[in-house]
Each structure stands twice: as C-alpha cells, then as structure tokens.
Model the fold of this input.
Amino acid sequence: MKVAFKEISKQYKGKYALHNFSAELERGVYGLLGTNGAGKTTLINILVGILKSDKGQVLINDIDARKSGVQFLSHIGYLPQFPQFYKNFEVMDFLKYMCLLKEIPLQQGEKRAKELLEVVNLSSAARKKIGALSGGMRQRVGIAQAMLGDPDILILDEPTAGLDPQERIRFRNLITKFSENRIVLLATHIVSDIEFIANQVILLKDGQLLKQDTPQALMESLNGKVWHVIATDKTLDEKLKRLKISNMQRDQDNILLRVIDDEKPDEHAASVQANLEDVFLYYFGEGEQW
Amino acid sequence: MVRLVCFEWRKHFLKRSIIIAMLLFSVLNIAKVYSIHEESSLLANPGWKDLYWKEWADFGGAITNKRIEKLMNIYLPLEQLTADHTASTKYRTPDTYLSNVYEDWNFFRLNYVDPMKYAYDYKAYAQGVVSAAKENIAFYESVDNSYERNKNAVIAKLFEGRSITSFAYTEMYQYYVQYDFSGLLVLLICLYGLMSVFLHEKVTEMDILLLTSKAGGKATIWAKLIASALFVSSVSFWFWVVDFVSFSIIFDSWDAASSPLFMLVDFIHAALNVSLWQYAILSALIKTAGILVFALAFLFMSILFRNALIPFIISLFISFISIYFEEVTMGSGRIWIKVINPFVLLFNRELFRKIEFVSLVGFPLPSYIAALLLATAWGALLLGGILIVVRKNTLWKGGGNRVHLEV
Done:
C-alpha cells in the first residue's frame, strides 16, 4: 500500500490550512508533527474523505482515492480527535456496531473485538457502559475500534490524549507491532509519542511540509545546534530572553540550560546530542517568550 | 440494514427519558379522556347511566316501528307534561324514572329520541341530497360546467343508498373523533426523541467515524430514517391504542363500532361510507402519516445545526404555527389553505366530516385525497432535503457538500 499526497491545498476563509502539501507514505509508522493549527487534522480529514481539497489529489497505490470511492474506506482504520462515542452503549456492543459499520462479518468481528480488548487491556470493561469509562479507557476503546478489520492504513489523531505513562508505553508497543506491512499515520504535537516508534516524521507548519525524514536523520541534522549552557540566578533572565531553551534543570546554585542555537551561545557552552523535542523546538519554537 | 436500524433504535430511542415521557404522557392522556367524560358525557351521571343501559334492552339495535312506538309512548307524555313548565319538580315522585319529569324528559330526549330521530330521518335526508345533486348534475350539464357536474356526481354517488338501520350508543365515538390532545403529546415526544438522531452524532464526534466507515454513510442515513419512522409509528400507535381503550373503558362501551360514520351528527355529510371502527383505524393511520411529515421536518431542522436548542425551538415554532393555521382555517371554505397544511392530517375529522373538493386541473378532487397528496409531497420534499443536506464523505458520489448553520 502506498499513499501519496500531491500538492494538496485547502483554504478556510482565505487562509491556507494546507498549502501545496506533498508527501509519500509507504509501510511504517509516520509521525505527523506540528503545533496546534498546523494543518494535521485537515490533512487527515482530506485523506479520509471528510474534507475535499481545493487543489491536488490523494493517490492510493497511484490511483486517485476519489476513483476508489467508498471501497477505499475499507482499508482505513481511523481514530478521530476527542471522540465521545455513545455513552449508553456497552464497550463490546460499541465494537460490534463499529464492525457492522465497517462491514466486518459478525462472528469474525466479535472475535477480533475480543482480541483487541485484550490488547488494549479492556477485557474486564467489555460489559461496561462507555459513559462509565475514564478518558484514557475511552481512548483505548477508540484505538481498538480503529484496528477492527485490520486496516492497511491506520490513522490516529492525537491518540495518546488522556493516557497515563504506562498506557502510552503499551500503546507505542501496540502500534509498533501493528505497523508491520501497514501504514500508521500518527498525528500529534506530543513528541514522545513518536520519538521511539516513528520510522518517518513529517513536520508540518502553517499547512506546509517543512521536512520529512527519519527521526535519526532529523536529530542528526541538529548536530552542533544543541548546547548545554550553565546559568546562575543572576544571568538566567538575560539568557531566557536571548536564547531558545528546550529545558532547564537546577543543580544546586547553577541552572543547566538546554539551548538550541545555530551558533555557540556561550563560550562555555557544550555541544550535546539532539533529541526529537529539540527538533520540534528548532522548527516550531521561534518567538517563544518565557 | 435490519441490524443498523436496531442499533439506531438503541442509540436514540431506547432511553429512559423517552420511556418516562411516554408513561407520564399516557397517564395525562387518560386523565384528559376521563375529564372529557366527566365534563361532557350524558352518562357521567350514574343515575342516567344506569337508566340508559336499562332502557337499552328495549331501544338498542335495529330501529323498528315497534321500538319507536314504545319510545314515543314514554316520551310524548313527558313532553306534554313539561311543555308549559308547570309540572311538579318534586324530587323522586313515584311515577318518574329519575328525580322528576323534567329530568326524565331531558334524559329520553337527549339519549334516545333525538339520536333515534336523527338515525330514522337520515335515509330521507340522504335521498334528498342525492335528488338535489342529480338536479345539479342536469343543470350544470346544461350550462356545460363539467367541474360542478363531476362534483355533484361524486356527491350523488356518495349519498346514494345511505341509511341508518340500527340504533347504537355513539357518545363514545362522538368524543373520540373530536379528541386531538393525544396528537399534541405524540408530536412533543417525537420532537424530543428525533432531535438527537442526527445531532447526537455531531455532539459525540461520531459523525466523523460514521463518515469514514463503509456502512456509515447512506446505509446509516437510511437506517436512521427507518428507525425514526418506526419510532414515530410506535409512539403514535401506542397513543392511538391508549385513546381508544381509554374512551372505551371510561365511556364503558364501544358498542357503535359497526355503525356507519354518518351516524355521528357531526359527520352527517361524511366524505366516506365507512363504519366507525374503520374510521377509527383510518383516522389513526392518517394521523400517523401527518406526524411522519412533521418528524421529517424535525429531522431536517436538526441536521442544519450543531446544538439541539435552536432546532428544537424552530421545530416547536413550526408545529405551533401549523396548529394555528389549522385552527384558523378549520370549518372555513379556504380548502386549499386547509389541505396544504400537513397538520390537517392530525385533525383529520376536518377532512372527513363533510365532502369538500379542490380543483385539480378542472377535476374535483376530494379534499382528503388532496391533503394526503400534498402531505406526501411535503414528505418527499423534506426527505430529499435531508438526503441533500446531510453531511457526506467526499469519496461518495455527490459527497462533499456540507450545510452547517453554526449558531
């Protein structure tokens, strides 16, 4: 399966939500990274057919998705942002309903639903009403429904919202396992969601593709641009104003600053290895004031 | 599709609040029927009721000369005694049936003499109508007015051979056919229940999941429409049954079921030759059809908005404005205005109590057929509107259009 976005543009009230966006996705986990309002959800909505692009096309295995029509939907598993689901439905009934919507045969769907509830650690909640679930549990129901029918393309919009650290780790492992021979598109602004599992990261800013590469390559591209600088309480304010800081850590009287800068910010500054959060800050963090 | 409809039913209509509303409104409905009986029924007075059913053995059933003679033997002396208002008003004199002769006179006049006279005279009256209609046919033929000629031909055919041969207790039906309160209750429950059918998907963000599922599009929209129609029909059926059973029990009879509709004085010019039980079923079906049209209007309004309050208020406004226009035009000669309003189906006695016509390209169409055709047109228009306006996936044929009034 191959998904290609060809010069996709979409405007809302004269403002571009996406502008000439082009990218290609083949099997693996793709992290779609951008600030709020960068165009992540718009891109996903165009991919799944909820929105029509003003320009450009989405190709699935080199065929226009619109020509595939609804058949294309059978390849998709989708978890939208902030779904509430039906509060008066039991978890299992909701998954059965989703099987019906996805046209998965009843018995096969029921079996898969049970397996997925096991995977997302919700077997004991199968007969609970969705309205009685916590936010994290509801999110896990959402992940399970997206995986019903074992779709070729799994699209997850802010999937870790409401998950606790243990659930996040479980989720990451699940996605890694699931991504074999599939495309997983994971839109988030939480860097740690994709840092360890994404094969490719797509950086989206103001509706435009900023960069698409492996996390490793993106981090390496910042070699010599991430620094450790030591500040004191007296010099801290001046440094905060002048430098782009990704982290601060107090060490007795001193404060260790993690600085992102093209130039060596200080004569005592020591170059350190970049991580994906630094990449995020490097591309999206200008103008931040502390 | 059946399973989709079942899920839609569970999602939107299998709610505690709807069940509670149904139960409370049913109780209210029964109370209302009871109050009608207490306020209006001649037999609400236990003394009258006992005497009525006692006399029923002598006067109920086929209208024969012997029975009429027997009734007149009781009634005429009472009429003479009360004619100059000088008879004794003393309470319970031995020769009276009830408290005094005035009450006896009123009892027999209202319960037996007037209704039996109406029934007995009806045949002659109907023949008179037929004769007048035939004269009109001849006249309009002579002046080459085919519309009026056809109209009178329908009237002549309708009234031909009409007669009432059997006397029955019709009071229950008399009030039953005038009863509209339950229609309003059904409309309110449907408004409440239907508001969530499309809106709930938006509120829960499930609309996006539906749109990205294979059967979440057209199949789900049709499942919603079918489930809504079933809901409306079920609620209507329940209330029409409650109405009929309540009237039958509270009035303690449904004796006149097989009597003709024109046995009710209000339906002297009834547009149909059907019995009362047939009319009860027909009326219930037509009322349900009327509510279905309103249900489509409610669904259409709910699609346009993201919150329930505005479409709820607009739908309520539409209902009340329809009721207002129905009341304004009721009994008037403005037949087109009357039949164009789908609410007339809920007040359908207005269509059946007398034969009225509208001109359809010069052909006289009975008003009830015109009303049904126009209601069908409204329904088709609203259904088309729903199918056009409802949000669709752009991957579907004709998808991508979206109408959304963000208020």
